[in-house]
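Inverse folding, one chain.
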C-alpha cells in the first residue's frame, strides 16, 4: 500500500501529538484534526 504525502504527514502529526502526552499541545491536536478532515473530504 502506498501512502500519499498528506497521509504520511497525518501519521507524523498524530505521532507528535501522542509523544507529547506529558505536555499535550492543543496546536498539535488542531493540526492533526485539520489534516484528517481535509483527507476525509477528498
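Residues assigned per position:
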Amino acid at each position: 500500500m502506498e501512502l500519499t504525502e498528506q497521509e504520511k504527514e497525518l501519521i507524523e502529526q498524530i505521532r507528535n501529538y501522542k509523544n507529547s502526552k506529558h505536555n499535550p499541545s492543543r496546536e498539535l491536536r488542531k493540526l492533526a484534526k485539520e489534516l484528517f478532515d481535509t483527507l476525509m473530504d477528498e
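The first helix runs from residue 5 to 19. The helical segments are 5-19, 26-41.
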